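Progress report, Aim 2. The chain analyzed during this reporting quarter is listed below.
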Amino acid sequence: MSDAVRHVSGRTLLWGDRYLTFLAIVLLGYALLGKGFAYIGIPPLYIGEIAFLTGIVVLVRSGALVASVTTLPSLLLIATMMWVVVRTVPYIAVYGIDALRDSVILLYGAFAFIVIGLLLEDARRIDTVLRYYAASLVTFPIIPLAFWLTKYWGDYIPRLYGPNIPIVEIGASALGTHLAGAAVFVLIGYRKVSWFWVLIWFGALAMIGASNRGATLAAAVAIMLAMLVLGRLRMMLTAAVAGVGLFVVLLTAEATFLDYEEVKDSIDRPVSAHQILENIRSVIGQSGSQTEGTKKWRLDWWDIIIGDTIHGPHFWTGRGFGLNLADADGFAGTGDANTSRPPTRSPHNAHMTLLARAGVPGVVLWSLVLLSWSGLMLRAMLIAYLRGHTQWRNLFLWIFCYVTAIVINATFDVTLEGPMQGIWFWCLFGFGVGSVMVYRAQVADEAVGRLR
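Predicted structure tokens for the chain:
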């Protein structure tokens, strides 16, 4: 797909290629080990910050810095990042490192420009990224295994970075995101997988179906969207019928031979057909007290944020970055005191986090970033389809579905606030913009060639 190459020195290209390999390793580490991998480094310079700073250097050396900010999504992202900086700097003296940590929800957006610059420097890196991802699918079964260990054997996982930080910690949200990305990659034909891989995938889907409603919804929406675009309606209906049939059989067997008891905490939800049913009922209506309790907890907190900003005194400014929103809004004591989980800081919704911290201007800018990026990707997808450029259309579809899954997760969980999915999101965001820019240049070159 990418036969257009900028004429730059071989040494500069070598730096970019090495950094791309390093970034791919970082992303794979986040996918396989989660929070444990994120703590590699010397505080406060962890692996994500190392990738961030070295990426900025590579971007400047590439000579593509100016070109990377010429699209509408890039310009809007810069404006949003600047507003976040304005709402962060005054609070550094008050909250210290917490202010900087909270601001990465948008400031990690620099990874988008780094990736755009890498592709503009050498468009062949699009194919390199696809090769890296295809190779990484070999390790995919490790992710659900890591999630299983986190869920059921978390107390026995070694801790190298402190009492609350195991070397492996994968949440359902991250698992759902990567389930979606891997499935769409396979659906569009970029990688053939074995039946064992497929069984592992469905087993992982069952685990998140019982554990996390947002992650399940993210995976389902992204995959259904891909199937609709690819014209796989028969496959989608067949899978749906088979899935429902298997679910009914398992539910009947559990009702016959097992007694279902509602858990007291969301982290203790068992992998069972009854729990999946409870989660589905909670999404579309009413369910048990535990699942309804977590939903009400979110809605109550979001109401407070809306009242404080849209209808309150922090309409224009928000409350800044660094403040513990859970403490400020009276939700700090909602977790289980007997667990080792860190205290809640954010309202399990990236959009609400930005509204609370950056005010209405911040969330409006953020919405424009998402809308402009989606419009860019969908328009490029349509143009590629009309021109018969199937490979390009499939590339844009994969990126769009992957990002969509993360955004859905970010609506129900703490997702973009941390590096494990935040850096993934912004790298995919930049990969989409950069790929569209390369595609446009390639189409323009072809048009000029025909005129000659």
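The chain is about 70% helix and 0% strand. Confidence is low (pLDDT under 50) at residues 3-7, 283-290, 334-340. These observations will guide the mutagenesis work planned for the next reporting period.
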